[in-house]
Amino acid sequence: MKSSSQSISPILPLLVGMIAISFAPILVRYSDAPVSVQGMYRMLFTVIIMLPFGTKQFKSIGAISRKDWLLLGAAGFFLAVHFLLWMASLNYTSIASSTIILSLEPVFVMVGAYFIFKDKPNKLMLIGMVVALIGAFFVGSGDIGITRSAFNGDVLSFLGALAVAVNMLIAKRIITRVPSYLYSIIVFAITFLCFLVYNLAMGISMLQYPVKEWFVFLLLAIVPTVFGHMIFNWLLQYVKATTISMSVLAEPIGSSLLGMLLFHEMVTGFQLIGGAFVIIGLLLYLRSEQSGPAPEPFSQSMP
């Protein structure tokens, strides 16, 4: 730990990051552009913003092996799939349901780490996983009773969480060999290219949008990405990864409150019950990290 870290108070940056990531689904809702276009420009603008801050690290690109380039490509692809599915879910289901289900990502990472890295979960982790999955079932069951499309949106969010879990498992394997800045900017650039190819293949317009849409694209890059996830990455120098994971759990709460305020989306009883189960389950899971040797999960989802 750096000595300078003693003068760093994580409270304000954590609050900024928690508020920032809560705006991701709100901004997606405000845009009328296809989600693949939103995702493409979010990644493009994020890469442009990142470029000036790590030019010295670009000389290390030549040291990246062919195998690691393949892993970076896979990470970018699955991140694009995550964005495509999760952002699309917001067209069908409520912000509360979508973000609650998306927060299951650490559970999927745990399962994947068990099969891929042989990381054995302890009893508390397993209890947390079961409780969280029960909560997701409550959310989905409640949405079946509302509309069929709401349930379809929950499924899209669920699949989006699976996709970002794969992305994080790849990061777990490669991050020890590729500097985090290079990893992030390369993966974001590949994600942008995946969206570009998808939009070209589907014949989706990428330029004919009003000023409002370009403003939303830019805000998606600045608010939830730069002031959200990049702040969390910076804070890892000063606080435990578990602290960051705990703060990310505030996203469903913040997003749901904003959804109620801005879109008049009232939270149903099933969402309240299911959301409580998911958050309790994830708290148990994160608590297990402090109770003994456990796998180091990548629990920052990318809304």
UniProtKB/TrEMBL annotation:
Topology class, membrane: Multi-pass membrane protein
Compartment(s) where it occurs, according to its Swiss-Prot or TrEMBL record: Endomembrane system
Membrane-spanning ranges: none
Limits of the EamA domain: 11-139, 153-286
One GO term describing the cellular component: membrane
Family named by the database record: Belongs to the EamA transporter family.
PANTHER family in the cross-refs: ACYL-MALONYL CONDENSING ENZYME-RELATED, EAMA DOMAIN-CONTAINING PROTEIN
Name this protein carries in UniProt: Multidrug transporter
Organism: Paenibacillus baekrokdamisoli
